[in-house]
Fold each of these.
Amino acid sequence: MEGLENCPPRNELEEALAKAKGFLPNVRLACQTIPTGEVHLRRLVIDDEDVELAKEQGANGFGKEKEVAILFSDIRGFTSFAESNLPYDVIHILNRYFKQIGEVILKNKGYIDKYIGDGIMAIFGLEDGEEANEICFQAVQSALLMLEELDKLNEYLELNFDVQFNIGIGIHFGEVIIGEIGHPLSKQVTAIGDNVNLASRIEQLTKATSVKVLLSKEVKERVQDRIKIGKSFQAKIKGKTGLYHIFEALSLK
Amino acid sequence: MEGLENCPPRNELEEALAKAKGFLPNVRLACQTIPTGEVHLRRLVIDDEDVELAKEQGANGFGKEKEVAILFSDIRGFTSFAESNLPYDVIHILNRYFKQIGEVILKNKGYIDKYIGDGIMAIFGLEDGEEANEICFQAVQSALLMLEELDKLNEYLELNFDVQFNIGIGIHFGEVIIGEIGHPLSKQVTAIGDNVNLASRIEQLTKATSVKVLLSKEVKERVQDRIKIGKSFQAKIKGKTGLYHIFEALSLK
């Protein structure tokens, strides 16, 4: 607890309990204390399981709210490629693709959150102090560069496998909860919340709209000075009432 | 290349090229060689990018086909819990849940493939030499134990947050491609293929059917001696023609 100076001294009742339980001075009973100014609290752990978890959690483990850009991408038709080619080739092509795409994301200050089959989820803006406009631009620029990398990969695929891939990319900007989650043996930093789901659903709309890169209006507003916007759509999005406005990103201005 | 003894000696044309290019004895021209028995080949790398990737790939990186059980689970209503609670609590609860669920999966020889928000993807049968029936049983047993762990968590949630979670679990068994994929800095072993997508879609059907654990018929056939099967459903599954038969897992027999 910070702000102890804004709490009055313990009353008789609290003092008795504090003595009996051996509370440190920074443990106060909320029911007996009326603060006179700002006080920062830490939640008390409740059972042994909580105690153990709290010990295991590092500095990243505690969860904080943050405005970030979330990018989802997916390869169209990869599953049928996987079904009709050798496992060696499937993994090799996927790794070649992820290496090129990954470089683009890392160079634009993005964090590769996870791979989901042939899909990728990336987060922009994890570091503190970055501006929303800049975060969104980094994400959209990554998407446009990913398309360039895909063009290169497609030359190779056409030559060696007589096939080309298309990708769909969806980007949204909003508040999420960032934390380190998972079983203690396999934790990873990730983003949680409705805005993550929304980004994923915008990516899925690239199929129906046949557009390569789709932005939410929250992203579009922050990049329109630097990015050429193409078509716009009104789409129904699961879990959202009414229609949701999404925009095609075409190229750098 | 293994099985060189099953290839006839180089003919004149091949000999000339082999000399000019400095081929080792185990590099043969497929167009000039008619094998008389079994021969194992390794694909030639094509460009510098391929060479670099091949160097980076470890023993797991090459991709192999394997029959595994794939388990997907998801918490119903977690997003609204996340929206209305403190980030600290959201991450804490998620970690408490993943720790308990993760233990169950690991104890049943499962591999935690990834966390997707509040969801988890696990693979059973990654080790060689396990029987299909046993692999499927481990996966279904994990699912049933996950429900027990959830009951414990729900007592804690009810007490502290006045909320309870439901989960939906889908399990499928089939051939996938196993490999280590991703950008060189963030690779992970995962499963790729249509059977992974099918497992995920079976999990999604738990919502419409209000069933906690759903099995594909490939799993059901392999566990029905040891698992009590409840309702069965005919469902339409995206990417599959006709109706697909799925089954509720109730308890151990």
Amino acid sequence: MTSLRDVAERAGVAVSTASAALNGTRPVAAATRRRVERAATELGYRPNVLARGLQSKRTRILALLFPAPRSGFGLTEMQFATGAAEAASELGYHLLLSPESADPIEELRHLTGLGLVDGVLLMEVGLDDERPAFLAGSGVPFAMIGRTREPGETDYADIDFAATARDAVAHVAGLGHRKLAFFNLSEDTHAARYGPAIRAGAEFERAAREAGLAYVGGYRPGSAEDGGKAFEDLVGAHPDVTALAVMDDHAAVGVIAAVARHGRRIPEDLTLLLVLSSARVAGMFHPRLTTLEPPSAELGRLGARMLIDRLQEESQGGPQRRLLPCRLVVGDSSAPPREGGTW
Amino acid sequence: MTSLRDVAERAGVAVSTASAALNGTRPVAAATRRRVERAATELGYRPNVLARGLQSKRTRILALLFPAPRSGFGLTEMQFATGAAEAASELGYHLLLSPESADPIEELRHLTGLGLVDGVLLMEVGLDDERPAFLAGSGVPFAMIGRTREPGETDYADIDFAATARDAVAHVAGLGHRKLAFFNLSEDTHAARYGPAIRAGAEFERAAREAGLAYVGGYRPGSAEDGGKAFEDLVGAHPDVTALAVMDDHAAVGVIAAVARHGRRIPEDLTLLLVLSSARVAGMFHPRLTTLEPPSAELGRLGARMLIDRLQEESQGGPQRRLLPCRLVVGDSSAPPREGGTW
């Protein structure tokens, strides 16, 4: 049997360094880690993660609970997962992608009962989500990407909707617009109590008021067809609106078609912003839309790091709370309002 | 200490059923599984996956090697992962999402050396990918979503490009088109030796020839700007082209803008097809584009199932090879060619 000492000797490092390199218990320079791994392979040494896990009661495995993709799923949700997996990997952890069934609490009971994972990362967190209370009650360490209405002592990383709305409003106010409309996420594609919709709606209204802009809210189109109808409604009731922020990509498609039917143009007759869409998606529109791009990979990374901090007891204090704003990426759909133009 | 017998008694099932329900060693009706899990929770019984893994030398964990997202990454790649995770979960396995670094072989050496995973699932497989040879040499069970130039004995699930091209060509030929152009994936965003680009190019050319259609290939625009330029080039050299299939979403944006600059319309003057894009993405274009949607989740599911079959030695025969065609979703960009129209 090859011992860890043999591996350390062949790699020319201390036994503690060889152990850290193979077990990921503390950071080791990449070149050193590779040398140790090569020595282990050459000597046929197989560290056994299971035996180690039995000893330490730690598996260094985290589970990301991944809801069944709904129609609105895209790049953002994938980047939560890849960001979390990357951060975990850098810190010597592994990330399980655990699909959620119709009964997430049963699923959690099953998953945490297996003794397989050290902690759980939640995403798509509802305002009244029951998963955090279950996990807290079970004593399973966890963190959230997103947050409930009252996150209490739970660690979370979420979008800073207040800062995002302020940035969006400052952008359109800076161009000289005096009235902003906001199309929120639809209640069909997203649960009515889905946090981002509630928070974005409230924060856009507040930011517009604070900046002295007139504001029109209350629309929630979830398809191209509904987006077009909502736009006709909007300009019928508010012919002086010159700027519109839309949270749903498909609704934006309908808005653009409706603008064209009026014989009008973007951005000359309407400044159009996408909210919570990637610049990649915004670049598929013509013209390329200004967007507020969510910091998805960063939120995934932060969530994993918070959870690992907690597991390693490096943070024993109060809850870790991090809010990151969306990034404003100015496209070709932003311009000053036309003088005296009405719909 | 609560024993498995206690759990079985409380749940009113045989010990072997309780074991199967908690260990996932064979399928158990969902209602029974839930009853056993509830009994286990109530009695404080904790099956230990690690102790079980040590005994059986199996962890029931698979790793999906997930490459660093490149610009072209989207829904398709996410659906490989979620499909694989779902299939694994249904069969009592867990899926690790393992991000790949710059050196995938070192990464694999590290990952498989840990003793953590029973098998590996590869995606984004290059024609001359070196990972399959490494895994075969290491004796680690694996399967591929995609395939190398010569997959040999390896299990794989991939897109059926021949059937996909035939379906696309039959669609445009059925509308009465006589000449089809094809814009392939760009060499910038995809490695030159990326299988889908090579196979799609060859199969579209072959399918067009077999259907008696004139064919124009060789274009590989990877951005909206390049898509527009390629289109100008195309109609300059082939003013009689009436149908175009495009593999890159952003290139399609440029094509649509170029058509508008000519004062022409889709689909009246050009039938435009997206290839390898989801209907969701195709629905963001105006008009909604006809698309050949990849069976991404199905391929992810198939890959995981093949690997698990192999691990459970249910398939000891020759390699498992499954090819699935893209699904033709007809949008508003398909129409018969205009009589005698040229560019």
